[in-house]
Amino acid sequence: MSAHTPVPSVTLGSMAELEPLIQGRETPLVIRGLCRDWPLVKAGLGSDDVAAQALLEGYRGDPVIAYYLPPEQKGRVFYNEAMDGFNYQAGKLPLGKVLQTLFEQQGKPEAAGVYVGSTDLDHYFPGLSAQHRLPLQRVRPMAHLWLGNQVRIAAHFDFPHNLACNLVGRRTFTLFPPEQVGNLYIGPMELAPGGQPISLVDMDAPDLARFPKFAQAQAAALTAELAPGDVLYLPSMWWHHVRSETQFNVLLTHWWRDTPAYLGRPNNALLHGILALRSLPKAQRMAWKALFEHYVFDHDEGDLAHLPEGARGMLTTPLDELNARKLRADLTNKLKR
């Protein structure tokens, strides 16, 4: 992988400085050592065994979803060769069994990949929840734990903002701005590891003959190398490839969105756009693009000055919950026709 520009980093005097720092921020930022005093971070600095024991002590006991990659996959979570399935096996296992399998791989020259992703902290690890939370006041993020050995997660994006706390081991994030989507060669939308479309480019060995536009994405890429206790602020919609660098790694993500859930998921609008617009002749697509830019992407407060406030209807911003539900019901009924 070629060298990329590092993500800017800061060190804060206290946790209280975090929220004002990221409020409205649109680019990534690394906050060094912010979580260094958390119990799991301290346990991991002792040893992998101590960190694993701390996880088990905080664990509720419900089986977690675990992934196993054969050694020949070299830790890359991806598709099978036919791209009609994936290159890993998945199943529900007790955490103790997952950790046993993970530690059995340590020291092997060609280790199998072992991975547990996006596991709700409050439900599965209630004993860790209280002491492993960022003190955010304006938002209430969902906290999810990730653990495994040296695996690689293909570049993908998430709609929510994210504060990713690196608790045990080291991780490297390679980040791409949202506008680089056309240079990342995205795989199928219907079938993707983790349910989120991914880049088909192998970030360790990019095939520029097959993926020539990826060179432009590389030029725009940023890299964040996280040590235990470091936190990465990852804004909404930024593409990110994640590499776990050590034989035992634990990450805690904090996800939140800027708008209330009753406004729905933007991905649903994208799917409807594919259904209703993608097959139109180009001239009609461009006409609809102009309408979307006017009503959705480029609007500002002055656009509705010619309308009385009571006549603005669904264009009122922000849309309240009652009118959002009316709009959703109307759309649902029209989709049934």
UniProtKB/TrEMBL annotation:
SUPFAM superfamilies: Clavaminate synthase-like. Residues 114-272 form the JmjC domain. This is Cupin-like domain-containing protein. InterPro entries: Cupin_8, JmjC_dom. SMART domains: JmjC.
